[in-house]
Amino acid sequence: MFKKVCSLLIIPIIIILVSSAFPSETKAASNYQWFATGDGYWDGTFKARSGQDVTVFINDWGQWGHYNDWLKVRLCRVGGGCTIYKLVVYDDKNWTTFTNMAAGTYHGDVAKVHNPSNQIKGKISFRVEW
């Protein structure tokens, strides 16, 4: 009887341990981080595993963002190496995707395409998925 009870208790514990060892393949893009163009600071941080895709969302363009503002985003891995800049257009899709990332911790870098002296402040988020 004792062995049967122990075996019934062990199964849920194993399931919990195994499920927590393998996190979800998709990380929601609700982890908003603030950015400001031209301030010299990184614009958000996230982690990716080898082969994952990362979608970058500009969730809020602040009070100064309008239809003439085009932003470009690149991702720089801690330890070296950056992607090319990709365009994000206000009121178009407000997102861009980087594919087949190398494993590591990345920083976002948001810059303005036109009128770089006019700073844009807003929110950025990253969705990491397979």
From TrEMBL:
<protein>
    <recommendedName>
        <fullName>Beta/Gamma crystallin</fullName>
    </recommendedName>
</protein>
<feature type="signal peptide">
    <location>
        <begin position="1"/>
        <end position="21"/>
    </location>
</feature>
<keyword id="KW-0732">Signal</keyword>
